[in-house]
Amino acid sequence: MLTPDQARDRAADIVARAVTAGADAADAVFAADAALELSVRLGTLEDVGRSESEELGLRVFVGQRSASVSTSDLSADAVAALVERAVAMAREAPEDRWAGLAPQERLMHGAPPLLDLDDGGTLSPADLREAALAAEDAARAVPGVTNSEGGGASSSRSVWALATSHGFAGAYAATGYSLSASVLAGDAASGMERDYAHHSARRHAHLDSPEEIGRRAGERAVARRNPGRVASGAMTVVFDPRVGSSLLGHLTAAISGQSIARKTSFLLDALGTQVFDSGVSIHDDPHRPHGLRSRPFDGEGLPVSPVALIAEGMLETWLLDSGSARQLGLEPTGHAARGVGGGPGVSPSNLYMAAGHVPVETLIVDIADGVYVTELIGQGVNGVTGDYSRGAAGFRIVGGQIAGPVAEFTVAGNLKDMFRALTPANDLVFRHGYNVPTVRIDGMTVASG
Prior knowledge:
By secondary structure, the protein is an alpha+beta fold. It contains ten helices and 19 strands. The chain has two domains: 4-222, PmbA/TldD superfamily (PmbA/TldD fold), CATH 3.30.2290; 227-449, no CATH class. 22% of the residues lie in helices and 37% in strands.
């Protein structure tokens, strides 16, 4: 695989070729990845897969017209043809007055922050097999586990580079490791219940042990045996951190520049207003060392910095790339995200809701009748109105205590109301790209399936 410097030079070279071919401006992305994945089931190796890829994406501008092309054929002839095709396509494209590269004066210069994303290591198939088997064995050893969907392990390394025609060129490398187990508990007579555990990390030394992953998967599956039904009505819903993080996804979709510019957001007029309770703050931290979504610069070459999206309940900013910023008469916020194909969109990096001040036990102690949700099903969320309805499974809350498992019910509300009624516990742990503590939302509608 190319080094970051080599990847940066590859991206800069195609940008220079595009300008020579007649483009007024251009940017290019080079992405390379090598990954090894392995799965086992019932103590037997099921699958081993290895993938390697190198891709190049080019975006060119001719006036206010633009075109994007990409290729995995990096031969000299293919790259030359790619450049000619991109410029020709741009000349025929419709004009877009918001199109263009990021403001030149805002580009990142100097040494990037040290984020510790690459441990330089690789794992062999034997290493991955040993870890996957150990995770599955630990899960199957939990009393009550009756079958297995398997264990899995992976190791990867990627390099990502961006270059623009107006003065930016940068690249970085990142490693990734993951480990998972999924098992079933119960029997044919009483019904089978499935659950899982999974962990990913940039550095192998930070990955949870196989035994911990397996034990967690097994205990979760066993706890879900023989689920009952929950009564329908208005009640308090508590979201486990595994599923509560999805609420952050609904927030970021609603405050993306594209949604605001198109007027397709339920938070359209909410900037600078109270969106959550004053006890809620939500932060984006691209500089978190070895974070799963850390990055030294955004998808347009702008510097990135930690920022509060929600500060004491107030919505502080939209998420803006250059195009949506121009359309709204604002400045880009360093949240542009880029794939190999097409232009930038927007995305946060390591997003998290700050921990609250009370433990989970205190958060639920006054709930006479509610539900603790550990699984969400379906995508019943309307980003324009904020209406929310998801299938769910989890546990009843009775008399301030988590009680028996329940399944096949729906939780519903409106995200505006849900955000204002949300209370976080103090159990925040950084395990994923989006992280939240356990959260409580009063006044939701629960309907039994």
